[in-house]
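Data availability (excerpt). The following record was deposited with the supplementary files.
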Amino acid sequence: MPAKGSDRDEQQALLSLIQKVEGEEWASTKKGWKLNSGVPVCEWEGIGCRVSVNGGSTATITSINLDNQGLSATLTSELGSLKDLEELNLKGNLITGSIPQEVANLEKLFSLDLTNNQVSGSLPQWWGSFSLNKLFLAQNQLTGEFFHNIYSPHLQSMQEVRLENNKLVGTLDGTTIMQMQKIETISLSQNIFSGLIPGFQLGSLPGLKFLYLDNNEFVGPLPSQLAQSGKSSLEEIWVQSNSLSGTVPASYVRFDMLHDFFIDGNKLTGALPLQLCSAKLNNDFFNTLPPDAERNYCEYIACPAGSVGKEGVYPCSVCPGGDAAKLENPYLGKSNVNLQCSAYSQRDILRIFYESTSQRGWSGGSDWDDSTKDVCQMTGITCDDHENIIKIGLKNRNLSGTIPDAIGFLSFLETLDLSDNNLEGFIPSDLRWTSLTRLDISGNKLRGVLPPLLCMMQELNGNGENNVYYCDRIACPANTFNTFGHHGYHGEPCQPCYDVQAPEEAYIGQKKCANRQKPTSDGFDWKKEIETLKESGANVNIFSKVALSVATIALVMLVFLLGTRCMGGKSQPQGRHERKQMLRQRAASSDSGSSSSGSDDDEEDPTPGYSDDVELASVGSATSRSSRNAMDLINQHKGIALSRPQKVKKAISRRLPQAQGIRTSISNINVNSRKQRLKGSRRSIDDGYDGVVDFEDDDMDEQDEEEEEEDASSVENNFGEERASVPKKKRQTDLLDIPMIS
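Predicted structure:
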């Protein structure tokens, strides 16, 4: 029998799972599971150990397998002391509470299975094991977001991640997904994920075989780059029951191994690529058909527009009315248990809308449920001469609930004002079927991102002008705000909001923000950062220590060099702007009386000490967050991140208050200041000036001068345009990293 070693400590860690009377009753039926039971811990029921010989025989716990054992407990931080634990399987029990960070930090953990429990709390973003292969947390009550910490060690080793049937929210971070190069299965079904599907990143994973994203709130198109040439290894794709729009990409015929493909219950239109329709696709559900039965292989994937199926797939029933029925049933894969097609009247749509938004009752009452009242006479309704509803105005009426899809089938609707209510959920992409030119959904509790096809609607809140479309004209993105909740006709850009919000509370179309100022820092505190790292439980490996040491040495050298330069003498200015100011003053004093007051060369800088770079950074960040081109996004399904000079030029064209913007004025001042500096420097040489004259940045200053002159020229050339055109050269990054539009 192996020596006990640290048996007692390991026993204490295991016995932390025995809680309350229920736990004691459970432990009484299991072998071991008592302190000082006389049974070695490695012989306890469900416990596995590894014996090592190192100056004596020792055994350490490597696995806990207690699946479907009726254990009622919470996970405790003491389990994190089992440093050699590789497998933790508590599937199918009554585990409650959150996942302790100490458990997530276990460095040798290979498999964690907590499926079918009642685990709650936020999904840990940091997992300390470089060998974590299987993470099964399905059928729980986890909240928070999908992984977005790109430095978490587990991303490198993950092969299967199952998070279906939880309460996870937010978008999928494409940058994080790109780190999961060994992943084979991603299962995120039945959560509350939103935003676009990061097709390029998912399509770049060489081993991805099973992708389950069904029953969420994803919007936008099915990404064509999910099927990349030479990388199309997917065997199963489940995206049914979302809010995806557009058509099924022809590139999906590249999926040679694909045998399950479900897209019903979305907002997809058009026809399926014929090459995609084959007997091998979704065949598992149709094995009971007689061999001689007529088969439509495209219906195996989804019922066509103008038809309906009990589950949105074969067998499909054609809606009565011919082509006209397709106008009210335009989507692929429409499902209805009773095989009923949509045929809404205006009154039907208003009734559905009222039932969906009157959870707390409308303020001031409502006559929308009065079946005897003429539709055009109802509160907030305006009709045209042909009794078609063209306007719905329900501002500040205490609407609560969700916006139903049916509202999108009011074909003549031009104005919809639902602002300042308590609406929740997401914006239905069905609104694209209307004739909307004005839409205001600001001041609610709507989440996610705007459907791209809605952003592409011509004339909606000014979109389409100069063939440019922006989603912020409809609603400010999450974590941004302005007075109106959208850019719209008012021309006020959406500004960043630095409120600390949970993902489920980050709403779009916000009009106010408690914290408008970006958090500032007096400097990087190494001690504070290290203590924070320790408190979070993140283990610093040898590589992290080396990197930290190198960075510390570099910081010390930088401080030393700066200090040496700054202490070189009182006569030497400490910065470029101070040198510029000194030389400008020297030039002005030496040239007093010889220059006219209206000369450009003698123009005083109205903002002494002004740091242009700081202002530009703030302007660029404030505007670039909301100036996203919907056309590029819909074509590429990627985000766009502009370099700093490009952000500057974009900021210039959008921030002009009148004939000339602040950046133009500053550019002119700086150009003139540089002329003064050079002029003063030359005079100092001629006069035998014995002070310090700095020529070391001349080349750089001349280059900066050219760039500033280009900026000023850019403003003049772009004056009158509402937005700058998107630069031809741009760095592409994941759309989901920048919560602008979709």
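Summary of structural features: The CA atoms of residues 523 and 529 lie 11 Å apart.
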